[in-house]
Amino acid sequence: MYTVKIDGDKCLGCRLCAIVCEGLDVRSDVLAYVAEPDKLDNVKEAAAICPENAIKVIEEN
Ligand code: SF4
User: Fold this and answer.
1) What is the 20 CA–ligand 1 centroid distance (Å)?
2) How far apart are CA 23 and CA 42, in angstroms?
3) Which of 2, 5, 57, 60 falls between 20 and 30 A from 18, CA-CA?
């Protein structure tokens, strides 16, 4: 289980995170966001690839 925080001030909307992680998506108004919370298996990889370091992942039990 992950809690994901995406810094909207840092996000550029490049979509790399959404390509890596099925649960993330990008919208023109909010940029990157969690679209499907049950599909975040690759969210740590998405955080690692984000060029702006905009994704914070907190792992919960
Ligand atoms: S990879 Fe980072 S900068 Fe790119 S859309 Fe995702 S959160 Fe935004």
Assistant:
1) 11
2) 8
3) 60
